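We modelled the chain as a single entity of 297 amino acids. Its sequence is:
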Amino acid sequence: MAHIKAQSVGGPRYDANQTAEERHGFDNLILLCAVHHIEIDADGNLDTYTVDRLLEIKRAHEVEGAASGQPIAELSEAAVNGLIIQGVVNEASVHMDFRQAVFKVGGEGGQPLGGGGQGGVLTIVGVASLPPALELELDGKPGQFPGGGGGGGGGVRFEGRTITAADLTNGVSVSSFFAANSTSWRDNMFNVLDGGCSWYPKPFPEQPLRVPVVIVLECGTTKPNELLRLDIVTESPSGAEGQPQPVDIRMTHDEHDLVRRACVAPIASFSVTDTGKYTLRVKSEGIVMASCPIEVR
């Protein structure tokens, strides 16, 4: 979902005469795939994808949709707000545009004798940090009148995106995945004790088995500062799979690096009921990227 006229000063096709309601209204939104979102906002294409041209494309989409005979559902205010947010934050593997964006997450102050609003949580998917120029307001607002409570503070969290089939085609892969007795990270180097450890003692009842592992990810054509998500999944001797344990990996390479590689050393924690062979797997969106067998005695 893209804005026809940019929502912020400095953005493509920004119109200073728009009201805030018009700027964030559905009439100013157009449904596009993320690739075309990049294309219409590229500096070299602004003379091609003018406001009139985008409105023409939007009308053509609506006519085609109406002719399909599919029922049209009324959009709630929450759904419209969700589409607006999606227009600002897109899947990082394709496009992430924060130009002149402002995020307010803190709760508003209360009216007379009223409680302040609860702070929200802004979740950013696919990048490890926000641009320095981005304005992010996390502080709650004080009460607006005597007797009004202050608003709660907001929070921001970063979450890795799943790896897609396109990423695999473009060189993303797990080149190394093994268990150890102990791992640490210091001075940009891994310290591993008993790397490739093949067996572990069965823990006490009701206690999980905690296995240090090392994951080396080849980054392919991913962009610096992207955040990818892997899942560590354990298969028991009976063939049952445990709950996925998410692991986010930040792309730390430089744009011009010939070797693009990222490493993490998480702890795989899982329940053990029987002794025997367990298999640790690294997955993303159901794709098995690596596996490592261990024995529990």
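As a brief sanity check on the tokenised model: Helices lie at 20-23, 34-41, 51-67, 77-88, 165-169. The two ends are 53 Å apart (CA to CA).
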